[in-house]
Amino acid sequence: MDAARHPVFPPAVAHLFGSARFASALTLCILGAAFSTHLLRATMGWPGLLAILVALVALATLSLLARRQAIDWYGLPPITLLVFLGWAIISVFWSTTTVLSGARVLYLLLFTALGVYLTLVRDTIQLVRGLGDVLRVLLGVSLALEVLSGVLLDLPIAFLDIQGNLTSLGPLQGIFGSRNQLGLIALIALITFSIEFMTRSVPRMLGAFSIGLATLCVLLSGSPVTMGAFIVVVLAALALAGIRRVPSATRMYWQLGLLAIVAITAAVLWLTRSRILELLNAGSEFEVRIAVWREIVRYSQMNTLQGWGWVGAWPPIEPPYIWINLATRGTQSSALSAFYDVYFQLGIVGVISFSALIGFALVRSWLLASEKRSSVYVWPALIVVALTVTSFAESTVLGEYGWMLLIVCAIKASQSMSWRDALRRHEPEPVPEE
Predict the structure, then answer these.
(1) Is a pLDDT exceeding 70 seen at residue 424?
(2) Are residue 261 and residue 305 in the same domain, yes or no?
(3) What percent of the chain stands above pLDDT 90?
(4) Is residue 427 part of a domain?
(5) H helix count then E strand count, the chain
(6) How many domains does the chain have?
(7) Are 120 and 69 in contact (CB under 8 A)?
(8) Is the torsion defined by CA of 108, 110, 115, 116 positive or negative?
(9) Whether residues 128 and 20 fall in one domain
């Protein structure tokens, strides 16, 4: 049946929801909400945040319906994403907190839907520009509130978890709730602003100012996790810059050599991890993580294959999460590692599917950044590198803006390097009937 003869909306409504201006405005709203969840919860509570997210998903659905004829759905989404989400949904049935698990799965699906929408209606440079505009505002607001708290009032802003440490040069939290969150978001902003500067998407002065703002926030966050991720991202950017300049005929050999260097470096870093932690002043944080991970391994032995069921951020008073916090004398809201969190909540099956999702996203985006001439292809690769490195010490990638960015990068890379798309290109042409 011809969709054009049976429109979903009247022409005026279809023009509104299908317009580029509506998609651009909705993109800014989605990115702003995803990166401001802590601020929205602190000011509006969970009901306000959920109402905003549901409204954004509804508007995104209307926009997709209005644009349905212009969207190519083939090869979307990646199989690894479907497997991970499917296992998380099924885990509700064996979870010890069935109702809560069901609600948290729906919360994860909200950000999945928003990530899929961004990927379908905006190309990479439009996403970079939209994210750049949003993060400039959010980092600026964060610094302004830190100045208000630490300099003008000399009092913490308790409901936003801002401690007012600006006069002692950090650590700062901004509007994101913790120094690790501010640091990671500032690192994402630094990557985004750098791509804007390289592609000349913004005026040079604005681009330079934005890079300086993000760098300042990275440093003032005082986050050892972010500093480690920052070093890896810089090294990855330098490696990509070198590989993009070598002849295509020898590029594969350079890629294999780089892979060998990464493997050797990872082994050396593991063997010298104690000294590195001392240099980063992260010893106490690492000890907390070790204690939490040890308890996770102990409790996971009861449900090794399937895990305890998906809950995302830990419910503080529900077992077995309360038991781990009591054993470690902490108040953790996550396993302080995405991989341990997935293992605890979704078992071995979850770890394999999650590792495949993030691994394929990393490899595909890296190969695209190596082969494509435009600098905009570097953005997904470096974002996935930042998320992957941070995932070893934080669980941010499993929810909200971290999960949404992973979805965007994974689908963007899959659209250009999907094995299903390769099969479609090599399908034999139908033989005409005689």
Answers:
(1) no
(2) yes
(3) 55
(4) no
(5) 17, 0
(6) 3
(7) no
(8) positive
(9) no
Q: 218: closest CA among 194, 241, 198, 200?
A: 194
166 shares a domain with 109: no
Per-residue tokens: 149: 């708290």
175, part of any domain: yes
Distance separating alpha carbons of residues 348 and 297, to the nearest angstrom: 12
Do residues 89 and 63 share a domain? no
Residue 41 lies in domain: 8-71
Instruction: Work out the average pLDDT over 239-263.
Output: 86
φ and ψ of 244, to 5 deg: -65, -20
d(Cα 340, Cα 326) in Å, to the nearest integer? 18
pLDDT for the residue numbered 415: 78
DSSP string for residues in 269-307: HHHTHHHHHHHTT-HHHHHHHHHHHHHHHHHHTTSTTT-
Residue 265 falls inside a structural domain: yes
Angle made by CA atoms 42, 393, 76, in degrees to the nearest 5: 80
Q: Which of 360, 352, 382 is nearest to 370 (CA)?
A: 382
The answer as to whether 284 is a domain residue is: yes
User: Using one digit for the tens of pLDDT, what is the confidence trace for 369-410?
Assistant: 988 888 899 999 999 999 999 999 899 999 899 999 999 999
φ/ψ of 157, rounded to 5, equals -100, 95
Distance (Å) of CA 352 to CA 40, 134, 347, 358, 385: 33, 34, 9, 10, 19
- Domain final residue, candidates 204, 222, 240: 222
pTM of model > 0.85 = yes
Q: Which residues contact residue 399 at a Cβ distance below 8 angstroms, ignoring those fewer than 6 apart?
A: 107, 108, 111, 312, 313
Inter-residue contact 391 to 397 (CB < 8 Å)? yes
Whether 104 contacts 345, CB under 8 Å: no
Among 179, 203, 222, give the residue marking a domain's end.
222
pLDDT score of 247: 82
The CA distances from residue 216 to 29, 206, 324, 352, in Å, are: 25, 15, 36, 37
Residues 277 and 410 both lie in one domain: yes
Q: Note the pLDDT tens digit of each residue in 58-116.
A: 999 999 988 887 776 665 678 999 999 999 999 999 988 899 999 999 999 999 999 99
- Can you read off the two tokens belonging to residue 376? 């905009």
The pairs formed by 84-88 with CB atoms below 8 angstroms and a separation of 24 or more are: 84/350, 84/353, 84/354, 84/357, 85/109, 85/112, 87/346, 87/349, 87/350, 87/353, 88/310, 88/346, 88/350
